Amino acid sequence: MTPAGYPGEDTMAGTSVAENLARLRVARDLSQEQLAEAAGVGLDTVARIEQGKRTQSRPATLRKLASALGVTIDTLLGHMPAPHSLDIEVVSLRRAINADTDIPGLNDLADSRDVLALPELAAEAHDAWRAYVDGQHTALVHALPLILTDARRIVREAHDDERAGGYRILSTAYRLGAGIAGRLGLDDLAYTSARRAVDEAAKADTPEIERAISLRYLAWTLVRQGLHEDAERVATEAAALIEPRMLDRDPHRAGVFGNLLFNAATAALNNGSTSRADDLLAAAHAAAIRSHGDTATEAAIFGPRVAALQRVDFMVRAGDPERALALANSTPPATGTEVPAFWEAGHRLFLAAAALELRKDKDALNRLAEARDLAPDWVRYQPLGKRVMRTLIDRTTRRRGTVFAELATHYGIITGNNSPR
Asked: Locate the HTH cro/C1-type domain: which residues (predicted)?
C-alpha cells in the first residue's frame, strides 16, 4: 500500500496544441529557436502555433515537432494515454490472480514434484514484499505469478501446520497483487486480489492478524474505487477487532490497527468528514506513541514518525497547506526501523503540493527532486507528482534549466524518447 493520493486532473489531456507545444518545449528546456532548428521548421511556425494564431498544422509539421520533442503526435495533440498504462506487462499477473480450481481452464496447479519447501517460498514472498516496498514494480510483477502458483500448490499438497503456513503465504501474495495492481491503476484487479487475500487469511496459521492485514488492503482498494463509505466501514470495523489492549506491546497488532485507522481517515476525509478523519488520525497517533518505535514489515508500516507524516499529509488533503508545512518542521525522526523510501517519497510529494498551493514554486520543485531521489521508480506512478510538475511548467514564463527538464521527464510530462532529436 501507499500513502493516499491527492486529487488532481490530468491537465494536458484535452488542451490545445498551442498550450501543449509551449509546455513540452519548456519542459525540454528548449527555446523556440532551438525547437525550430531541431524540427526543421521555421521559427515563425513554432511562434504562431504557440500563440494560437495557427490552429491547423500539416501532419508533416506535427510529426517533425513531436519527433524533436521526443513525444508522440498524440501527446502533442493532448490525447494522453491512461496514466498508468506504462511499460509493464501484467497478463501473467492477471492470470495468476484470477486462477480458480472451480472454473474449467483456469486451474494453474502443476506437477507436485515442483512444489517448493515452505521456508523457500516464505523467503521468496519476503523478497517480493521488499520489491514492493522498494518500488521495483517490474521485478514484482515478474515474481508474483509464480509465488501465487507455488503457494496454491503447497496448500493442495501439504497437511496441517505446513498447509496453514502455505495459506499465510498465499494471502500475503494476494495482498501484494492487490498493492501492485492498485499502483498500476488496475483497481478492479486490485480488489479481486485483496478479496482473495481475505479468504485465504482465514485458513492461515495466524488467522486473526492475517485477516486484519488483508482487510487493510481491501479498504485501500475501496478508497481507490471511490467507495469511501464502504472503505471507512471496513477499516473501522476491522480495527475494532484487532485493537491492542492498553498494555499490549505487540508491534504487529499496533501497526495493523494504526494502518487501518489511516485508511479509515482517508476514506472519511474523501467523503467530506474532516472532523471524523481527524479523530481517527488522533487514535492512530496515540497507538503510535504507545508502540515506542517505527516498524516496517509486511504486516504494517507504523510508528511515531509514520503517524506524524500521515498527519502532515492529511493537512494537505484537507486544504491547509500552511499548517501542513508548519507541522512538517516538527516531525520526529524514525526510531527503530527506517521508514521505507516510498513512504518518505510520498510525504515529499504532499509537501510539494503544499508548497505549490502557497506559490512557493522553488520549494515545490526541490520536494519533487527529493521524492524522485528517494524512490525513483515509485514516483513515476503517482498522479500527485505529475500534477505538481505540470502546474510548475504552466506557471513558468521562461526556461528553467536541465534539472527542471529532467524532473519533467521523470514525472511523465514528457513521454516517449528520453531526449529530443
From this structure: 21-76
> What is the assigned CATH class of domain 227-339?
mainly alpha
CB count, 10 Å around CB of 329?
A: 7
Q: Residue 109, class by beta-carbon neighbours within 10 Å (0-12 exposed, 13-18 middle, 19+ buried)?
A: middle
3-state helix, strand, coil in the chain (%, to 5): 65, 0, 30
37-90 pLDDT, tens per residue?
Answer: 988 988 888 888 888 887 677 777 888 888 888 877 777 877 654 444 445 678
The 3-state DSSP class for residue 302 equals: strand
Residue 150: alpha-carbon gap to chain centroid: 27
For residues 331 and 294, the answer to whether their CB atoms sit within 8 Å is no
The pLDDT tens digits for 27-50 are 788 888 988 898 898 888 888 888
**CA–CA separation, 381 and 223 (whole Å):** 17
What the block records as the C-alpha cell of 226 is 471511490
**Torsion sign over Cα 10, 11, 14, 18:** negative
> pTM of whole model > 0.90?
no
Residue 275 has pLDDT above 50, yes or no: yes
Q: Where are the domains of the chain?
A: 227-339
